[in-house]
């Protein structure tokens, strides 16, 4: 039992954390205003794993702690091939859309602040992005995560179609003249 707790701690240490947004919210009640904070955090190992979390609390440090622990629970695997994504995709969340496009080596990360944070911590070095619609930081982060979540790994696609990985990218050449 003790060993499992240590392994989980060590596993979490490899993740880098970034706070995307800290927002003060207030609820008006009969007795006055109740102030609280909402924090959006991203964690990633810069090697194909990234997670997003939201934390709400009366104090900022507590909200940050909650957001980071939620992000560690919501980690997804992102297929990264030669420092970029395998194919173009559009991630959607409410009124926000994020276009994610693979880029040639040396391009770098062409993205706004919120999308950049998610993509960097996922371990992608070359990507072109464009945010369309609402620029709400939470929705942009969720749209980016949805896009990355829906990426197809070429190795899995090749296995499903029973073809080689090269044929997935270049197309299958048919030999029959029917």
TrEMBL record:
InterPro entries, A to Z: Ribosomal_Su5_D2-typ_SF (IPR020568), Ribosomal_uS5 (IPR000851), Ribosomal_uS5_bac-type (IPR005712), Ribosomal_uS5_C (IPR005324), Ribosomal_uS5_N (IPR013810), Ribosomal_uS5_N_CS (IPR018192), Ribsml_uS5_D2-typ_fold_subgr (IPR014721)
Gene Ontology cellular component list: cytoplasm; small ribosomal subunit
Source organism of this protein record: Thermotoga petrophila (strain ATCC BAA-489 / DSM 13996 / JCM 10882 / RKU-10)
Gene that encodes it: rpsE
GO BP: ribosome biogenesis; translation
Pfam families: Ribosomal_S5, Ribosomal_S5_C
Coiled coil (residue ranges): none
Quaternary context: Part of the 30S ribosomal subunit. Contacts proteins S4 and S8.
A GO molecular-function descriptor: structural constituent of ribosome
Cell inner membrane is among the record's keywords: no
Residue ranges occupied by any S5 DRBM domain in the UniProt entry: 15-78
Protein name: Small ribosomal subunit protein uS5
Family, per entry: Belongs to the universal ribosomal protein uS5 family.
Entry-linked PROSITE patterns: RIBOSOMAL_S5, S5_DSRBD
